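Practice problem 4.
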């Protein structure tokens, strides 16, 4: 007779079988890795676990579990679990694996009929098998449901991250084209107005017309404005005649161009365009004099509403609570969809994106709680070329989990009745079998 539940043969042999079964299962999984990727990393380990438990007991089966856990934790050994999900993945696997061992152990015969006759207080093999079926139906269903829920949860967030990365790529290309256009217009305006300031003032109508012509058909552009070294507006495409009393010397972009001899492109924060009185942000270049001295600024004012309309149209095409941001690396907000509340000018310091912008990273994905509406989101960010400008696309985790909840409700609506039905049928069969066993023992007693 075997020695019971935890040991069904020499321990050393059982451990060797368990180790070999675990290695063989994970090696087979590594062979099919090109087909499955990192999904279902333990698909072959569970059959091996059932075999070891039935043949050698629960104690050796724990070694099989350990082999699988160590295998996926070793770097560069397929399959693997992402570092950020490793703890949750191994925890879910360990729970399901141990539960599988305990369920399978119910099928193991505790003693042999050949060694000892059944007594009235000993459960017959058929009853024990039916009881194991009940536990097996419940346990396997629970394991399957937990495993599918975990897998679908990971898939939902993986699809959500892929969605925001794709959408962010679209808005990044749009912003790239818009800023490239603004840069070209600024350089073109410099060439058009490359005459002495006195001539610009004297012929303001002519230059106003020429600047207005280059902005026709450009919905993103509010105005092209030329400013002299004293901060006074010389000519604007949006207004004629200009207000000569306007003073631009307090604008940050004017101070930066005046302080730096480089004629690099600069982008201002959101401000009021003085010639037109509308909110805008400026793409500016430095105007140089004959000897390279500072001679003013050429500014192309871009409309935040143009970007908002594009983000709104994109949001309407993709289901879910989508958000889009256009902001500077210092956290200054240029525009947002949905529109920000009045007075929101900067990204709050507590926002998870703030350190990302300060470090100057080019792109990435983060999960954060929005500082604008306290909604938990998956956010993809991307820098626009070498400019200090970022675009982000965000997807609400509520939207991500909505599909996951629907899937789990559908799964449970199918699995729960089937599980209850199978367990109930097995329970009825076990009750009937036990009645027959009691009748048999009564007959045996009467015969004796």
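Answer key:
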């Amino acid at each position: 007779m075997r020695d019971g539940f935890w040991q069904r043969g020499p321990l050393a042999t059982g451990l060797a079988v368990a180790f070999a079964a675990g290695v063989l299962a994970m090696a087979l999984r590594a062979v099919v890795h090109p087909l499955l990727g990192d999904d279902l990393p333990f698909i072959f380990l569970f059959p091996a676990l059932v075999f070891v438990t039935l043949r050698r007991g629960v104690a050796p089966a724990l070694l099989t579990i350990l082999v699988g856990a160590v295998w996926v934790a070793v770097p560069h050994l397929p399959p693997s679990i992402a570092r950020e999900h490793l703890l949750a993945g191994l925890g879910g696997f360990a729970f399901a694996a141990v539960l599988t061992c305990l369920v399978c152990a119910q099928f193991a015969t505790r003693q042999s009929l050949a060694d000892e006759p059944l007594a009235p207080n000993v459960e017959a093999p058929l009853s024990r098998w039916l009881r194991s079926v009940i536990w097996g139906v419940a346990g396997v269903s629970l394991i399957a449901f937990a495993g599918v829920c975990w897998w679908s949860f990971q898939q939902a967030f993986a699809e959500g991250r892929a969605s925001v990365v794709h959408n962010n790529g679209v808005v990044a290309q749009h912003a790239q084209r818009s800023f490239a256009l603004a840069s070209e217009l600024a350089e073109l305006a410099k060439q058009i107005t490359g005459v002495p300031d006195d001539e610009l003032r004297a012929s303001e109508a002519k230059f106003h017309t020429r600047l207005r012509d280059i902005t026709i058909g450009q919905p993103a552009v509010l105005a092209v404005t030329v400013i002299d070294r004293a901060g006074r507006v010389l000519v604007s495409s949006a207004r004629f005649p200009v207000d000569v009393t306007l003073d631009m010397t307090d604008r940050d972009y004017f101070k930066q161009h005046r302080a730096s001899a480089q004629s690099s492109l600069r982008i201002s924060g959101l401000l009021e365009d003085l010639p037109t009185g509308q909110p805008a942000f400026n793409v500016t270049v430095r105007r140089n004099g004959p000897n390279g001295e500072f001679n003013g600024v050429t500014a192309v004012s871009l409309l935040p509403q143009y970007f908002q309309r594009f983000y709104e149209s994109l949001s309407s095409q993709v289901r879910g609570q989508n958000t889009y941001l256009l902001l500077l690396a210092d956290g200054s907000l240029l525009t947002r969809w949905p529109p920000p509340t009045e007075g929101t000018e900067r990204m709050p310091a507590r926002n998870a994106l703030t350190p990302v912008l300060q470090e100057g990273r080019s792109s990435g994905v983060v999960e954060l709680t929005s500082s604008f509406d306290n909604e938990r989101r998956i956010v993809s960010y991307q820098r626009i070329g070498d400019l200090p400008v970022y675009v982000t696309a965000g997807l609400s985790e509520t939207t991500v989990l909505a599909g996951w909840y629907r899937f789990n409700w559908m799964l449970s609506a199918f699995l729960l009745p089937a599980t209850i039905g199978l367990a109930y049928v097995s329970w009825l069969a076990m009750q009937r079998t036990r009645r027959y066993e009691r009748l048999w023992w009564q007959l045996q007693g009467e015969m004796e």
